[in-house]
Design a protein that fits this description.
With 343 residues, the chain is mostly beta strands. Helices cover 3% and strands 43% of the residues.
């Protein structure tokens, strides 16, 4: 179902597309930014809870500085120095986390109109044409992001792109989840499991050093599950540098597998995260400061958390990290799933 979602400052008319399944779940996405706007899940009492932070119309996303619900690219996360070399040629990117590039630079994918290419009752595909030189990256590429709501209560996000020249690609979704409801306040009492024996160390600018650090005996260990806030204020380098959790975990195993889970005792809503990529950034909303959101909600620090599936940050500069290089005519194809349940 399509409905109006406001008008941007450029006069672009945005639309909201809503999908429902037979089990009481509902999601809504917009062609402005290919953003995930709503995820409504029945709680243990059968009441629908919207579990992602967001805004009531496109104008909110246009002004947003926190990437709520955002589709991010051409390369999500950070590229050190705002430049890279490919095939012996240097490329300079737009720098927005000086001197580095974050989430593609200043001309963000989540601030653009995407084309709704196809849609039915349970899925929609958005298309974005990214020309050669866009954000400083080489090669034109048509990027497709498909959102699907399944009868297994999965929000499936499928990314597909075929570049015309060699380039780098690393797309992700930056939704903030709060399984007690998007306007319920802090998410720090909710429990998270991350299936990772290690994380990638980063410096004070959140640029990875290339080191892989074991989580054993550190506040980064979520393998057995714990409240998000249990150790977030620990005197530990990664937490000090990130102002809380804002690091990339090395997800155990390869191929499509579970990366993480989250659970709210208050609502009984749980979520499992699946990916086929090597890493996942777990970010605890450390820098949100009094943001007016959907339905009159006011979002504050750590009221939602992100599970950003990805290639490791700054992989283009690290020989020991799996690289995000996609060759001309090659296929970039990856899927992230957020699956919801009541327990």
């Amino acid at each position: 179902m399509r409905s109006d979602f406001g008008v941007t400052a450029k006069g672009e008319k945005a639309s909201l597309y809503t999908m429902k399944n037979q089990r009481g779940m509902e999601i809504a996405v917009s062609d402005y930014g290919a953003v995930l706007v709503k995820v409504l899940v029945p709680d243990r009492d059968g009441n629908q809870q919207d579990v992602v932070l967001g805004y009531d119309e496109a104008g909110g996303y246009e002004a947003d500085g926190f990437y709520l619900g955002a589709t991010l690219g051409r390369v999500a996360n950070r590229i050190g120095g705002g430049c890279f070399e490919l095939n012996g040629k240097s490329y300079s990117l737009t720098r927005n986390a000086d001197p580095n590039t974050l989430h593609g630079g200043r001309d963000f994918y989540n601030k653009r109109m995407w084309t709704a290419e196809e849609a039915d009752d349970n899925h929609i595909t958005f298309l974005l044409h990214s020309p050669d030189g866009d954000q400083g990256f080489p090669g034109a590429v048509d990027i497709r992001v498909t959102y699907t709501l399944t009868e297994e209560n999965e929000v499936k996000i499928h990314y597909h792109a075929v570049p015309q020249e060699d380039t780098i690609l690393n797309l992700t979704n930056h939704s903030y989840f709060n399984l007690s409801g998007h306007g319920s306040g802090t998410a720090m009492d909710q429990e998270v499991v991350i299936f990772a024996d290690a994380y990638t160390r980063a410096d004070e600018q959140s640029i990875t050093t290339g080191e892989i650090i074991a989580v054993e005996g550190t506040p980064m260990d979520f393998r057995k599950g714990k409240a998000i806030g249990a150790e977030i204020e620990s005197d530990y380098e990664a937490l000090k540098f990130g102002g809380g959790y804002d690091q990339n975990w090395v997800i155990n195993g390869t191929g499509y597998r579970q990366a993480a889970s989250m659970y709210s005792k208050e609502t009984g809503i749980g979520m499992k995260v699946y990916t086929d990529l090597p890493g996942m950034q777990f970010y605890t909303g450390n820098y949100i400061t009094r943001e007016n959101g959907k339905g009159g909600a006011v979002y504050q620090k750590r009221c939602g958390v992100c599970f950003e599936t990805q290639y490791f940050p700054d992989a283009v500069h690290k020989e020991n990290f799996e690289g995000p290089v996609v060759r001309a005519g090659g296929v970039y194809d990856t899927t992230t799933v957020y699956q919801f349940y009541v327990g």
